[in-house]
Design goal:
323 residues, Rossmann fold, Alpha-Beta Plaits, four-stranded antiparallel beta sheet, disordered C terminus
Length: 323
């Protein structure tokens, strides 16, 4: 049995004046799937989300959410989805419980149903202990979990997460990842935008790589990584002096240096031979090496190979372009 198609985009195109932000973007997200739009700022991720959540209209193209045409019936589309952005949209002067209860009233839940739904969501998002505290006292991760809980009060079948873990510490990020996985396991369809390669790798069933407003690749994390042939050898240097001296040596056009790790990473099709050559060069130039490792292809390698860059730029907003 084929999974139901919950999000279908065909030929989505959007420009702000002379700046083309999306160019003929097509993709399909099925029920219960976590689908990640991956790319740097400026790739078109947020514009795609804004179109699919009816916040802006495309210049051309079509899309349906849960089988409903978003141009013809935007109000029905909005009833079928929720959107959680980069900043938690919660009332800091209310408690977590009060925030949820208020949203449940706005969703027209009766008194008993409202109380039950609030209790369910507080438990699901591990906020029971803090439910009677004002949100102003919450950590960033707690606020983000409460924001997501609020967006699920009416149990929408489709959830859009626009860079939901931006600014979170690693522990809070991992907690939110667990929540997202649980939602998908329960059948919720999730479209996630992110700049974090690890986030897409950890969560997504399918990843679409956007670059310059165009969809340049699509597939599972494993499928995308398989596009990169060969492994990489990483040589980690014992001290800053060795790293600095290594930086000026001719290791090849595709070698890259990692200043944070004080290491050299070289692509290879024969790891044994590459290690032998690197060690010989290090010995010849008296470089102190502390570790050698073989690295399998990552999404970082995929992204670099597809776009030729890792630099971040800013996606123009309508207000910025009009300014």
């Amino acid at each position: 049995m084929t999974q139901e198609e919950m999000i279908v985009a065909r030929g989505l195109t959007k420009s702000y004046r002379s700046t083309r932000v999306l160019e003929q973007v097509d993709f399909t997200v099925r029920a219960g799937e976590i689908y990640a739009l991956l790319g740097p700022n400026g790739a078109g991720k947020t514009t795609a989300i804004n179109i699919l959540t009816t916040l802006i209209k495309p210049d051309s193209g079509t899309a349906t959410i849960a089988g409903v045409d978003l141009i013809a019936h935007p109000e029905r589309v909005r009833a079928a989805l929720s959107l959680t952005g980069q900043n938690a949209a919660v009332d800091e002067f209310q408690t977590g419980q009060e925030n949820l209860a208020m949203m449940a009233r706005l969703a027209h839940l009766g008194g008993r149903a409202r109380k039950l739904r609030t209790s369910e969501l507080l438990a699901r998002f591990d906020l029971e202990a803090a439910s009677t505290r004002r949100v102003a006292t919450y950590s960033g991760g707690m606020r983000r979990r409460l924001d997501l809980a609020i967006s699920l009060v009416s149990a929408p079948p489709v959830v859009f997460l626009d860079e939901p873990t931006t600014g979170l510490d690693p522990r809070s990020r991992n907690q939110l990842w667990d929540v997202v996985r649980d939602l998908a396991n329960d059948g919720t369809t999730i479209l996630l935008t992110t700049q974090y390669l690890e986030e897409a790798d950890q969560l997504a069933d399918t990843i679409a790589v956007l670059d310059g407003g165009m969809l340049v690749a699509e597939g599972s994390p494993a499928q995308l990584k398989s596009r990169i042939s060969g492994d990489h050898v990483e040589l980690t240097f014992d001290d800053a002096t060795s790293y600095a001296r290594a930086a000026v040596l001719p290791f090849g056009a595709h070698a890259r240096l990692d200043s944070e790790r004080q290491s050299l990473v070289v692509p290879t099709k024969n790891s044994v031979e590459t290690i032998r050559e690197l060690l010989a060069m290090a010995s010849e130039h008296n470089l102190l090496v502390s570790n050698i490792s073989i690295i399998k292809p990552t999404l970082d390698d995929v992204f670099l190979s597809l776009t030729g860059r890792a630099a971040r730029s800013s996606e123009p907003t309508q207000q910025e372009v009009a300014a």
